[in-house]
């Protein structure tokens, strides 16, 4: 009897274990999320409709079921989705199953989290902690930035996304035997030119990626890099001139240089990344602006991913030579990091006290430097020396996502005073008033003492 009960117990344990294994296998094959979760499962069949054409802010996790970090993130991701329900959309893509969707957004590791905000065609990487609280805080900051952008009159990226989803080629320049030289060889812009054949299957696959990338590149380079297409079966003179033997062939044209073959990836994100590299390599160093009014800081911080703010000693402390030495250091670093396309500004110590206070500047003395991400309202301070080496190490760590950050005081860019532009000269001490003592009776003063 005892033996029979032991056998029944063993069988029960076996079936329980088998059930757990089956459940684990089910989760591994089908992903981490079910219809009962507040996380929306996304795939190539619904991604465009749910995300790109949406006016909502989306946080999307790209994961692989076998990834240990993804498994550990799952409960926090679900918790964040529930907390943000009705406010921010939270989604997940099984990028191991839907490899094309992962490749479209350049996913190379798991989990990768991207924020699809105002411009759905230019999602941002989420760099915060992987806890539910940090995810929710970041989502609300992104939502605040998106609402502010709309208030400032910036259009939603959802309309742009609808154009791209319909295969719009409005930003791809059509080149022919007749207009090629005038547009490409005689112009000052950088051109990425696709030579295609209408019957080519690979060309058809590239077409929507090329069209979407063309719009992104036009926007992000202000039209300085252009994407174009040549029907090589019609314009055979061009195809022969550049030795086109296979389709699609992509060539890069810079003014005064021999064309070179493009050997990068064929997804929108790959093409855009390559175009931005070409743009930054040929772009002049970013302009270093003095903070003279609110518009200068707003443009530097809101039009770029990061703005680098330097606060230099008062002109009476350094003179013109000392100040120009600091400015030259900043300009060299701006040139070194020009590929990042950051905004660069500076102010004199004491001229913008609200700004200094919001960034905690001054405690380390002057000069000082801070980097602000205005979308997240986070900043990092230079703790090392204000030298090329010290600033390089600071900016390098920022580029790699390292270093400590804090929230900008007040959660918004502070009030900026309107000041006069530095005239490039040494400072002058204020002129003291001459005091006329001719009418003063010194004897009376002596008696009072």
Defining key terms:
15 helices; 5-stranded mixed sheet; disordered N terminus; 16 strands; globular; alpha/beta; 6-stranded mixed sheet; 16% strand; 449 residues
Determine the structural class based on helices, strands and strand pairing: alpha/beta
Q: Name the helicity range.
A: 40-55%
Assess the beta-strand content as a share of residues: 15-25%
Overall geometry: globular
Can you give a write-up of this model?
- The protein has 449 residues and is α/β, with parallel strands linked by helices.
- The chain is 42% helix and 16% strand.
- It is built from 15 helices and 16 strands.
- The strands form three sheets. It has a six-stranded mixed beta sheet with strand order 11-13-12-14-15-16, with helices on both faces. A five-stranded mixed beta sheet has the order 1-3-2-4-5. A five-stranded mixed beta sheet has the order 6-8-7-9-10.
- The protein is globular, with a radius of gyration of 30 Å.
- The termini are far apart.
């Amino acid at each position: 009897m005892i033996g029979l009960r032991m056998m029944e117990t063993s069988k029960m344990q076996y079936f329980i274990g088998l059930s757990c294994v089956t459940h684990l296998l089910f989760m591994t094959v089908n992903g981490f999320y079910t219809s009962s979760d507040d996380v929306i499962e996304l795939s190539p069949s619904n991604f465009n409709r749910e995300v790109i054409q949406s006016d909502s802010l989306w946080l999307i996790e790209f994961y692989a079921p076998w990834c240990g970090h993804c498994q550990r993130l799952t409960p926090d991701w679900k918790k964040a989705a529930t907390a943000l329900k009705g406010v921010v959309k939270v989604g997940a893509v099984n990028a191991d199953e839907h490899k094309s969707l992962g490749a479209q957004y350049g996913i190379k590791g798991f989990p990768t989290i991207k924020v699809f905000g105002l411009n759905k065609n230019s999602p941002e990487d989420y760099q915060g902690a992987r806890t539910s609280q940090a995810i929710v805080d970041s989502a609300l900051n992104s939502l605040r930035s998106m609402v502010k952008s709309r208030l400032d009159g910036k259009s939603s990226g959802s309309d742009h996304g609808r154009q791209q989803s319909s295969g719009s080629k409005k930003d791809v320049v059509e080149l022919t035997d007749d207009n090629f030289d005038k547009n490409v060889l005689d112009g000052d812009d950088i051109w990425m030119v696709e030579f295609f054949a209408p019957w080519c299957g690979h060309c058809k696959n590239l077409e929507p990626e090329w069209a979407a990338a063309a719009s992104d590149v036009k926007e992000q380079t202000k039209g300085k890099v252009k994407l174009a297409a040549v029907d090589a079966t019609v314009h055979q003179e061009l195809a022969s001139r550049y030795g086109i033997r296979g389709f699609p062939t992509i060539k890069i044209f810079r003014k005064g240089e021999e064309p070179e073959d493009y050997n990068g990836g064929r997804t929108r994100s790959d093409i855009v990344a390559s175009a931005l590299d070409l743009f930054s390599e040929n772009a002049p160093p970013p302009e270093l602006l003095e903070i003279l009014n609110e518009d200068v800081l707003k443009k530097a911080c809101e039009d770029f991913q990061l703005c680098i703010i330097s606060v230099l000693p008062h002109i009476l402390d350094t003179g013109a030579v000392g100040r120009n030495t600091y400015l030259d250091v900043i300009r060299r670093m701006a040139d070194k990091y020009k590929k990042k396309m950051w905004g660069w500004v500076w102010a004199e110590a004491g001229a913008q006290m609200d700004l200094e206070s919001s960034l905690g500047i001054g405690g380390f003395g002057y000069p000082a430097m801070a980097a602000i991400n205005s979308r997240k309202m986070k900043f990092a301070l230079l703790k090392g020396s204000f030298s090329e080496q010290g600033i390089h190490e600071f900016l390098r760590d920022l580029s790699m996502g390292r270093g400590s950050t804090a929230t900008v005081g007040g959660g918004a860019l502070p009030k900026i005073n309107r000041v006069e532009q530095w005239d490039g000269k040494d400072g002058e001490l204020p002129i003291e008033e001459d005091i006329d003592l001719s009418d003063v009776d010194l004897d009376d003063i002596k008696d009072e003492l």
